[in-house]
């Protein structure tokens, strides 16, 4: 396990290094400068500002300086937020994004497992049809459309939840639901298919022959085995949530990190672009690592050491 | 067992989340019920509270209400006394003497002329890296200071005692009174700058204030902050509001929903549909902005556009009324010329009206397709072409995209003209404009201060913002006279500027399109809000809730 984890951490660091390098040089190809009034400033003023941000040096020196800083957790200061360290910017805004993402994943996946299982158990009945329709809708309706509809119904019309902003837990309900729709629908679809497969397996027949009740069969045998492919799709779903949250955060005025990322690109805020890219890459790598570990826990036949079972 | 654990954890999370959600639903009550709190929607974050570093509207608006300069700009861009209760200008227009009132910082310390000297020097100091330092370009020795050839102490700003400030200019600047009202020239407490170091102005707590309000609750990156009454403000007894609560809401639909749900007392609308919802409501306020959108034509790299008749044809072929009414539909108005209406007036006459050609057929900003076709035919003959293909560069925002589609549709009515639209992100559009990678570009400009020169200066031959490279010696002379020999003579200077705009329009140096408005909704009980079309815009000093 330790060997496996060390190997994965090494790959994580390598991935982050490659992402940082590629993003850094691509970013330098972006047109324009981060200055607001560049044309009005004298060359010496521009030089001074560039000097302050280290932009006066050759690109490779800037790159090395950046890497050196990043290793020690110094991602520079933002151009958009004057003199604000990027690490502070990320730290102060990541909480809301993470909370929403985790809530949406947990709620979406759990609800998807339940609904998908019910659909499989009640196969070819109206219940199955209903769950299928719900999951198709969940996949096809974009999160930002759902966000606006939820906001309008439950926020403006019924006044059950706040329309926007970030305060107590009630503020998280609508954005969480908007974000949870996709993981819910994807999980439900996969779960249904897997469960149907598993329920028609020989060992389920054997369990039935042994006189085990339906609840027992489903809980002890079918559910567990159906979960394995679900774990596989959690990684990509988490990525979808990260990207989807940019729009949803904007719609619900959530002080998260997603919208800042887009704005930093539009304003050529180099340090923020870099800091957020590294953070997103790190989060993605961690999600994939966790997925692999959980994969092994759920199905002991899959040994994380790579030895034959 | 593991599956069981997973299910348990999941269920607990779900139930807890829903439970907490239900508990928290009562949290959504707004403060707007309070008679002395105004809830205000902002569409962007607050980037800084450092007066030397602010370059955006949100920072300037917050600074304008939490700080006070020598003078202030109020309704109709009129100058009002600020910390300076009076001021005088020398006969040669180069020396401004400000007499300050006794006032305090929010930490209780006394505010003196030295704080203004320090603030202005700090903005001019290259070490500060202020992006608005060019506002000081008329102040004596600024150029040498900005190039690090002279020490910052040699800047033409001196304190004579505690309550007299003298600013010396290198050449007269009749609109300097507006410049001193801007945040880069605000007083700054040396004690605070030194105390907070690099954190100065990066959080509400890392700043001191001398205005009617103090900023509270801003962590530097969060989406809400509050202006709270500053008891140390010299005019505190006249301040009516206790708090102004700012909340960032960037999505237009959400903003409207929040306003309708009573979360905001004041909010900004976006687009035709939203504005139409409030068309006959007294809550809708169409606030003119000192901005102009116009087409620049690349006269450096495209020989066709060097032809004056071609340029005139382009200008006359655009139906600005239809553009503003049917395409934008948000209250924006057709351009009369380059300088927007309501920016500046002289002897009771608005600059835009004074410079406008009232003749419908000769006016270059009228829509006259028949006349446009005549100019077009003449121009084509002169350049020896039968057809022309031009690219139209613009931003990729929904508004700019709609504009380019409308302009493309209008211009292709000119026989043989093909227009290809290119909508790019802002920074890319700007870079392409500056590098001359365009035929036609949709550009916009916001006036820095209420004087026509803030617009007319743009199209002098060597100005960095003159992307089309239109050059006209007569125009340059008028602008140079206004800034030089006539700078001290209000009447002559006005005539110079009016004539300059007439030359620009007559020569179709650029094609002005429309003046945008800020469509704002306000609850009926919000009164006394002051608005100026330039700079920070809103002033809450006299605002109250009835």
From TrEMBL, chain A:
<dbReference type="GO" id="GO:0055085">
    <property type="term" value="P:transmembrane transport"/>
</dbReference>
<keyword id="KW-0472">Membrane</keyword>
<dbReference type="GO" id="GO:0005886">
    <property type="term" value="C:plasma membrane"/>
</dbReference>
<protein>
    <submittedName>
        <fullName>ABC transporter permease</fullName>
    </submittedName>
</protein>
<dbReference type="InterPro" id="IPR045621">
    <property type="entry name" value="BPD_transp_1_N"/>
</dbReference>
<keyword id="KW-0812">Transmembrane</keyword>
<feature type="transmembrane region" description="Helical">
    <location>
        <begin position="9"/>
        <end position="27"/>
    </location>
</feature>
<feature type="transmembrane region" description="Helical">
    <location>
        <begin position="272"/>
        <end position="298"/>
    </location>
</feature>
<keyword id="KW-1133">Transmembrane helix</keyword>
<comment type="similarity">
    <text>Belongs to the binding-protein-dependent transport system permease family.</text>
</comment>
<dbReference type="InterPro" id="IPR000515">
    <property type="entry name" value="MetI-like"/>
</dbReference>
<dbReference type="Pfam" id="PF19300">
    <property type="entry name" value="BPD_transp_1_N"/>
</dbReference>
<dbReference type="Pfam" id="PF00528">
    <property type="entry name" value="BPD_transp_1"/>
</dbReference>
<keyword id="KW-0813">Transport</keyword>
<feature type="domain" description="ABC transmembrane type-1">
    <location>
        <begin position="94"/>
        <end position="295"/>
    </location>
</feature>
<feature type="transmembrane region" description="Helical">
    <location>
        <begin position="100"/>
        <end position="121"/>
    </location>
</feature>
<keyword id="KW-1003">Cell membrane</keyword>
<feature type="transmembrane region" description="Helical">
    <location>
        <begin position="227"/>
        <end position="252"/>
    </location>
</feature>
<feature type="transmembrane region" description="Helical">
    <location>
        <begin position="166"/>
        <end position="185"/>
    </location>
</feature>
<dbReference type="InterPro" id="IPR035906">
    <property type="entry name" value="MetI-like_sf"/>
</dbReference>
<feature type="transmembrane region" description="Helical">
    <location>
        <begin position="133"/>
        <end position="154"/>
    </location>
</feature>
UniProtKB/TrEMBL annotation, chain B:
<keyword id="KW-0571">Peptide transport</keyword>
<dbReference type="Pfam" id="PF00496">
    <property type="entry name" value="SBP_bac_5"/>
</dbReference>
<feature type="compositionally biased region" description="Low complexity">
    <location>
        <begin position="24"/>
        <end position="39"/>
    </location>
</feature>
<protein>
    <submittedName>
        <fullName>Peptide ABC transporter substrate-binding protein</fullName>
    </submittedName>
</protein>
<keyword id="KW-0732">Signal</keyword>
<feature type="signal peptide">
    <location>
        <begin position="1"/>
        <end position="21"/>
    </location>
</feature>
<dbReference type="InterPro" id="IPR000914">
    <property type="entry name" value="SBP_5_dom"/>
</dbReference>
<dbReference type="GO" id="GO:0030288">
    <property type="term" value="C:outer membrane-bounded periplasmic space"/>
</dbReference>
<feature type="region of interest" description="Disordered">
    <location>
        <begin position="24"/>
        <end position="57"/>
    </location>
</feature>
<feature type="domain" description="Solute-binding protein family 5">
    <location>
        <begin position="78"/>
        <end position="466"/>
    </location>
</feature>
<comment type="similarity">
    <text>Belongs to the bacterial solute-binding protein 5 family.</text>
</comment>
<keyword id="KW-0813">Transport</keyword>
<dbReference type="GO" id="GO:1904680">
    <property type="term" value="F:peptide transmembrane transporter activity"/>
</dbReference>
<dbReference type="InterPro" id="IPR030678">
    <property type="entry name" value="Peptide/Ni-bd"/>
</dbReference>
<dbReference type="GO" id="GO:0043190">
    <property type="term" value="C:ATP-binding cassette (ABC) transporter complex"/>
</dbReference>
<dbReference type="GO" id="GO:0015833">
    <property type="term" value="P:peptide transport"/>
</dbReference>
<keyword id="KW-0653">Protein transport</keyword>
<dbReference type="InterPro" id="IPR039424">
    <property type="entry name" value="SBP_5"/>
</dbReference>
């Amino acid at each position: 396990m330790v060997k496996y984890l060390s190997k994965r951490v090494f790959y994580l660091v390598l991935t982050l290094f490659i992402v940082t390098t590629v993003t850094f040089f691509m970013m330098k190809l972006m047109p324009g400068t981060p200055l607001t009034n560049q044309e009005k400033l004298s060359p010496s003023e521009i030089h001074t500002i560039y000097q302050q941000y280290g932009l006066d040096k050759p690109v490779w020196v800037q790159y090395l300086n950046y890497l050196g800083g990043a290793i020690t957790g110094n991602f520079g200061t933002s151009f958009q937020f004057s003199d604000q360290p990027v690490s502070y910017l990320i730290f102060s805004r990541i909480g809301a994004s993470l909370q929403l993402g985790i809530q949406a994943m947990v709620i979406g996946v759990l609800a998807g497992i339940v609904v998908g299982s019910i659909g499989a158990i009640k196969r070819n009945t109206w219940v199955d049809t209903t769950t299928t329709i719900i999951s198709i809708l969940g996949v096809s309706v974009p999160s930002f459309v759902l966000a606006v509809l939820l906001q309008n119904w439950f926020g403006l019309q019924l006044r059950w939840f706040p329309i926007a902003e970030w305060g107590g837990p009630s503020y998280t309900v609508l954005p969480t639901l908007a974000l949870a729709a996709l993981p819910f629908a994807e999980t439900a679809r996969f779960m249904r298919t897997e469960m149907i497969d598993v329920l028609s397996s020989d060992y389920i027949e054997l369990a039935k022959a042994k006189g085990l009740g339906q609840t027992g069969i489903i809980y002890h045998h079918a559910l567990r085995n159906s979960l394995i492919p679900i774990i596989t799709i959690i990684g990509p779903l988490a990525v979808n949530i990260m990207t989807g949250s940019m729009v949803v955060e904007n719609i619900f005025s959530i002080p998260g990190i997603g919208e800042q990322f887009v704005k930093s690109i539009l304003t050529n805020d180099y340090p923020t672009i870099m800091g957020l890219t590294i953070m997103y890459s790190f989060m993605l790598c961690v999600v994939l690592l966790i997925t692999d570990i959980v994969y092994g826990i759920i199905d002991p036949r899959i040994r994380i050491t790579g030895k034959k079972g | 067992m593991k599956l069981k654990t997973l299910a348990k954890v999941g269920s607990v999370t779900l139930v807890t989340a829903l439970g907490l959600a239900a508990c928290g639903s009562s949290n959504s009550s707004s403060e707007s019920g309070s008679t002395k709190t105004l809830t205000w929607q902002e569409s962007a974050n607050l980037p800084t509270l450092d007066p030397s570093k602010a370059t955006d509207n949100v920072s300037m608006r917050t600074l304008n209400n939490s700080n006070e300069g020598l003078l202030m700009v109020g309704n109709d861009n009129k100058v009002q006394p600020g910390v300076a209760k009076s001021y005088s200008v020398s006969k040669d227009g180069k020396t401004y003497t400000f007499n300050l009132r006794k006032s305090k910082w929010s930490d209780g310390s006394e505010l003196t002329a030295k704080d203004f000297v320090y603030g202005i020097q700090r903005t001019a100091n290259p070490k500060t890296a202020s992006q608005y330092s060019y506002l000081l370009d008329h102040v004596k020795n600024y150029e040498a200071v900005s190039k690090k050839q002279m020490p910052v102490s040699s800047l033409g700003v001196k304190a004579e005692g505690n309550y007299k400030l003298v600013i010396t200019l290198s050449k007269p600047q009749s609109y300097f009174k507006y410049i001193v009202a801007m945040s880069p020239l605000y007083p700054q407490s040396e004690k605070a700058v030194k105390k907070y170091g690099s954190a100065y102005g990066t959080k509400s707590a890392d700043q001191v204030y001398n205005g009617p309000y103090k900023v509270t609750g801003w962590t530097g990156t969060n989406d809400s902050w509050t202006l709270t009454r500053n008891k140390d403000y010299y005019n505190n007894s006249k301040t009516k509001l206790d708090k102004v609560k700012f909340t960032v809401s960037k999505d237009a639909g959400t903003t409207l929903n929040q306003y309708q749900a009573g979360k905001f007392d004041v909010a900004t609308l976006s687009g035709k549909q939203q504005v139409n919802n409030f068309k006959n409501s007294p809550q809708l306020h169409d606030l003119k902005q000192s901005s102009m959108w116009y087409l620049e034509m690349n006269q450096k790299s495209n020989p066709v556009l060097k032809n004056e008749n071609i340029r005139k044809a382009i200008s006359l072929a655009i139906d600005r009324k239809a553009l503003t009414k049917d395409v934008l539909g948000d209250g924006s108005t057709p351009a009369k010329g380059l300088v927007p209406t309501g920016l500046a007036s002289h002897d009771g006459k608005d600059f835009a009206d004074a410079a406008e050609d009232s003749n419908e057929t000769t006016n270059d900003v009228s829509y006259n397709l028949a006349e446009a076709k005549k100019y077009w035919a003449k121009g084509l003959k002169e350049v020896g072409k039968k057809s022309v293909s031009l690219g139209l560069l613009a931003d990729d925002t929904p508004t700019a995209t709609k504009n380019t589609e409308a302009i493309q549709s209008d211009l292709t009515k000119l026989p043989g003209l093909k227009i290809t639209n290119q909508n790019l992100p802002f920074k890319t559009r700007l870079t392409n404009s500056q590098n001359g990678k365009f035929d036609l570009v949709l550009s916009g400009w916001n006036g820095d201060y209420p004087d026509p020169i803030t617009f007319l200066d743009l199209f002098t031959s060597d100005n960095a913002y003159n992307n089309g490279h239109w050059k006209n010696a007569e125009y340059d002379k008028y602008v140079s006279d206004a800034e030089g020999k006539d700078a001290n003579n209000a009447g002559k200077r006005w005539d110079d500027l009016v004539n300059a705009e007439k030359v620009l329009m007559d020569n179709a140096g650029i094609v002005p399109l429309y003046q945008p408005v800020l469509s704002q909704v306000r609850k009926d009980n919000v009164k006394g809000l002051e608005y100026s079309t330039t700079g920070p815009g809103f002033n809450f000093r006299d605002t109250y809730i009835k």
